[in-house]
Amino acid sequence: METITTRDLTLGYGEETIIDQLNIEIPKGEITVFVGGNGCGKSTLLRSMARLLKPKDGSVILNGEDIVKKPTKEVAKELAILPQSPVSPEGLTVHDLVKQGRHPYKTMFKKWSMDDEQAVNEALRSTNMFDLKDRAVDSLSGGQRQRAWIAMTLAQKTDTILLDEPTTYLDMTHQIEILDLLFELNEKNNSTIVMVLHDLNLACRYAHHIVAIKDKQVYAQGRPEEIVSCNMVHDVFQMKCDVTYDPMFGTPMCIPHGRGRCLIKSAVSDEPCNAAMTQVN
């Protein structure tokens, strides 16, 4: 059941430490979401898990081995990463973009094969992009572009996929479309999916496992229904809220306090919120 674990992982840039001696284990075959305030280190942690950032101290263990000691192509056969807001060369077609996912399998002596083409076509069909394969990536809508990039990661044929804010800049419809796609991939392929999300309610709806990060450490981790409370939201995001149940999914749902056109006095009061979730009828 091995996947990705961190051991006393410390990360940073220059003299600044972003993550300090962090220990987590990513559940295999599940969707894990990192949440936390801006600048808390979510994306930095994800980059280190993909071996894009070398630890200052500690280690990232991928399937039982220190990731920095594994050859690049071997890592790319075990996990794929989709960075935030990726950019493709102008005029590149969807098909050519997805083909890049096969790069880890290429050698000087191995030409493009039927297996490669089959992997690309499967990825295009899984993301409903096959009919758009000849379109230029930069001519697509935001949701279509994101599906094209996800298709590229699928073409790598890895058991683990890392995604940094895959719904950024997408409208509500396309956010749900992308998250539904990832949920379906997890259910169909038993893929281990790790992603950074800013929307806590969507994280609760789609994640099996949530890791909340604060002050360079894990504040809490576990099933959404086990760890998401208004106290957690207040401590991690410095925001007062009520936490109830999503009436459609039964998952925790955060209702932020604030001004706006509020009709309920308690939502703008300074009184502490109720820490327990309340059932919606």
UniProtKB/TrEMBL annotation:
Main location: membrane
Limits of the ABC transporter domain: 4-240
GO molecular function: ATP binding; ATP hydrolysis activity
Protein keywords: ATP-binding, Cell membrane, Ion transport, Iron, Iron transport, Membrane, Nucleotide-binding, Transport
Xref: Pfam families: ABC_tran
GO (cellular component) term, any one: plasma membrane
InterPro entries: AAA+_ATPase (IPR003593), ABC_transporter-like_ATP-bd (IPR003439), ABC_transporter-like_CS (IPR017871), P-loop_NTPase (IPR027417), Siderophore_ABC-ATPase (IPR051535)
Keyword Glycoprotein attached: no
UniProt KW Transport keyword: yes
SMART domains: AAA
Record-level GO BP terms: iron ion transport
Source domain of life: Bacteria
Cellular compartment(s): Cell membrane
Membrane-topology annotation of the record: Peripheral membrane protein
Protein name: ABC transporter ATP-binding protein
Organism field: Aquibacillus koreensis
